[in-house]
Amino acid sequence: MLTENYSQTCNSDADFKNLLGFFTNMTIIFTPIFLIFKILAILESWKDLEAPYNHLYTYYHYVLQIPAKTTLHQLEWLFKYPFTIYPNLNLLIRVLIVITTLILLISLLNRFLKLLHLNWVQFILLLLSPIILGGVYQWLFDLPNKL
User: Which residues, at least 6 apart from 130, have a Cβ–Cβ distance to it below 8 Å?
Assistant: First the structure.
């Protein structure tokens, strides 16, 4: 009796660790996606900002927003029109297209980064450099005006 309770406790601990690991992985995967869509929503008003901030947002408009909108339009088209008369086959084809496209894009980005002799951290820092420069600009030049 005591052995059964102990083994059930061990299994529930293992299940809890697996569940915690799953939620941690999902958070790591979906948080950047959520933040990208949040930034894209902010970028809608990039034309209304003053210089130099409109230049920074223009950079992100062309680097992030246009490719993301294009991708969303393509996904919308992909899921709107059927390929065959069989719904399950359509779903399978769509999932395979999305997975294949993601693998191709990641491999192309990897090759592009190797061509530029960059790693992923340097690439992300390169993408974030306009935000960092905008923050430094605001800290250096806009702060005394508000005092």
Answer: 56, 59, 60
